[in-house]
Amino acid sequence: MKVNDISKVFGVYEAQPAANQPVKKAAAAAGKDKLMLSRDALDFQAVMKGLKEAPDARAGIVAGMSRKYEAGEHLADSRELAAALFKSGAVGRSGVSRE
């Protein structure tokens, strides 16, 4: 087979006219994207903002306890610790964590 006119083959590599290009109708018609948060997300956002802005009330307590521990002055009473864990509900009488 003999091919004489190959000029049409190179036409494939030329720029396509705009009419052949797909148009994103949804993006063009909608304009800008919008973000809508649920009520739960807004509540969560407000709580997180409040937690970030709240001062750490325990920072002084932790620093004091750290100094006592490093100096060997703080000895935890295991009975008081166990009673506090039971009272808070963190640990049941069987010794199993409730989480």
Model description:
The chain has a domain at 39-91. By secondary structure, the protein is mostly helical. 0% of the residues are buried. Helices cover 49% and strands 0% of the residues. The radius of gyration is 35 Å and the shape is elongated. The chain has helices spanning 7-10, 25-30, 39-53, 59-71, 78-88.
Secondary structure blueprint with pairings:
Layout: H1 7-10, H2 25-30, H3 39-53, H4 59-71, H5 78-88
Structure at a glance:
This protein is mainly α. It is built from 5 helices and no strands. The chain has helices at 7-10, 25-30, 39-53, 59-71, 78-88.
Describe the structure using short key phrases.
99 residues, mainly alpha
Q: Please estimate the helix content.
A: 40-55%
End-to-end Cα distance: 80 Å
Main β-sheet description: none
Structural class: mainly alpha
Secondary-structure element order, N to C? HHHHH
Calculate Rg over CA atoms: 35 Å
Please provide the count of β strands: 0
**Overall average residue pLDDT:** 77
How would you describe the shape? elongated
Strand content: under 5%
Low-confidence runs:
none
